[in-house]
Amino acid sequence: MGLSVTELLIIATVLIVAIGAGVIALNRRRGDTTDRRPAMPAPRPSAQELDGALHDLIRQDKKIQAIKLLREHTDLSLKQAKEAVDGLAAGYPIHYPPAIARRPARPQADLASRVRALKEAGRAEQAVLLVRSETGMDEPSATLFVDSL
Questions:
Q1: Distance between CA 104 and CA 97 in Å, rounded?
Q2: What is the pLDDT of residues 75-111, one digit of tens each?
Q3: What is the spatial distance between Cα 14 and Cα 18, in angstroms, rounded to a whole number?
Q4: Backbone φ and ψ of 118, nearest 5°
Q5: What is the pTM of this model?
Q6: How large is the angle between the packed helices 63-73 and 78-89, nearest 10 degrees?
Q7: What is the SS3 string spanning 66-87?
């Protein structure tokens, strides 16, 4: 009692599909899905932000993580990154490549929070200037905005 070629192909196809479905099910159970969209890359930090993160890691005695972070955001070799982190720990600044040094720092708080802080410090005129520079408002509109906070 032999099986024909067609029957053997059908059996082989069913086995391949079953094995493939099993592999996919195991990967999904582990959380390893391949059909997800890739995550958006994090914005690249400015030199000041990178310095702050490196100083924090050095204070926590995590020099290896600081070296990894520095290499991740620069084209420095392992040796150069280690020397830079050791220098930073000793109080010397890092001289970043021009592409990183020119990155603008992201604002730390939204405009309203910064205006409130200036206003609370008695610097209402500075708050109006800040609003005008960041929004393009005229002076009466900026003053009204500052007064409303």
A1: 14
A2: 889 999 999 999 888 888 887 767 666 566 555 678 8
A3: 6
A4: -65, -40
A5: 0.44
A6: 120
A7: HHHHHHHHCCCCHHHHHHHHHH
